[in-house]
Amino acid sequence: MGLFDAISISASGLTAERLRMDVISNNIANANTTRTEEGGPYRRQMVIFQAREGEASSFYDLLQKKVQPGTGVRAVKIVKDPSPFRQVYDPSHPDADQQGLVNLPNVNIVAEMVDLIAATRAYEANVTALNSTKTMANRALEIGRG
User: Fold this and answer.
1) 100 domain-assigned
2) Which residues fall within 8 angstroms of residue 126, CB to CB, at 6 or more apart?
3) Residue 32: which of 114, 97, 100, 90 has the closest Cα?
């Protein structure tokens, strides 16, 4: 693995975690939205990640199934959470049904905050890895100068 491979892997992690934080923020912002363009309450969204595939360094390695390890992560898609909506009794709400029940989004603020903390820590870990790679590259250049 070369210097630029390490930077590329960290950069892919930064991009993926940034998207994850954006989606989580959108979920939190819409935690009480009962009307959407699709109709009905807002449905929680989740990001699906997938490892980026490594490459074989030669055709012979490909035949021997000697493939380089993964080269980072990428967001494949954003999916809607199929879990049921929360129902609250509030007959005065404009979106209440005949029984006075209102369907609220399937967003759990506590779970979203935990996910946001995890995404933030993963982002910070990628920044640390990127900075370590830059430091090692600078030190290697200093060895060549001396």
Assistant:
1) no
2) 10, 11, 13, 14, 17
3) 90
The residues near 10 (Cβ < 8 Å, ≥ 6 apart) are 72, 126, 127, 129, 130, 133
pLDDT tens-digit readout, 93-117: 999 999 999 999 999 999 999 999 9
Q: Is 96 inside a domain boundary?
A: no
What pTM was computed for the model? Answer: 0.82
Number of domains forming the structure of the chain: 1
Q: pLDDT tens across 6-61, in order? A: 888 999 999 999 999 999 999 999 999 999 998 899 999 999 999 887 655 555 55
Q: Is 46 exposed, middle or buried (0-12, 13-18, 19+ CB in 10 A)?
A: middle
> What letter does residue 52 receive in the DSSP assignment?
P
